[in-house]
Amino acid sequence: MWLLLGLTLTRPQDTVIVGRRGISYSKMDCLVEAVELDPKLAVGWYCVGVSLFDPHINNNNNTSPSARISPSSSNHDTSSSVVISGSYYTAKDCYLRSLELEAHHPMIWCKMGCLLTDDEPLSGSATDSSSTPSNIVSIVVNGNHFTARQCLLKSIQVDPLYSNGWYYLGNELCKGRHASSIGSMSFSAWECYILSLEVDIEHRDALQTIATQNIQVLLTSGTNNNVPLTRSGNDVIRGD
Length: 240
Fold this sequence. Notes:
Blueprint: H1 2-8, E1 15-18, E2 23-26, H2 27-37, H3 42-52, H4 55-59, E3 69-70, E4 81-84, E5 87-90, H5 91-101, H6 106-119, E6 127-128, E7 138-141, E8 144-147, H7 148-158, H8 163-173, E9 180-181, E10 185-188, H9 189-199, H10 204-221, E11 236-239
Parallel strand pairs: 6-9
Antiparallel strand pairs: 1-2, 3-4, 4-5, 7-8, 10-11
Helix pairs in contact: 1-2, 2-3, 3-5, 5-6, 6-7, 6-8, 7-8, 8-9, 9-10
């Protein structure tokens, strides 16, 4: 009930009055109540993480109607934290809890991959599913290590029709990192964008990225419209 109530509040500043005592609850208050009452509610942890990463909350911590939310104390972590059962949780903490409880939601893997991508250096050594170099940020889910790229790959392994998974995997491949070797199949960044559109032809970010990169190729090549967009070998990822 608390989860559903929280989801009805579409803006961080919205509140609802609950009970005879007229206590005001914000969206975050409702979501926190949900996971405190049921710590195994995977979707609840996910929703708390999404709300913490909301730019309206991050940019207006002092005016948030929820006293539970605290600004990040780290310049590296742009997300806020929230007090749940006496402990502080960032968006990444919430996504991790959600994945530990339910590892078959592509959206959660994608969100975690995007967060880890922000934390990673711009280059690193090649990795496979059994090794992670020290300069690559990773998480541990049920005993297994996952880098940003592996989280994004996991999102499309769970659901190959999840267009955001393909799109953000393409973005991650464009950032100059070396390839990860996982299985036998390979995808370039360009192919990830195309697959994102094949799943959802109205994916505006993928359309814009493809259009922008095609224009850049044409401007630098000075040739006709049939110039293919090519990638180097370091832009390839292999997956199951």
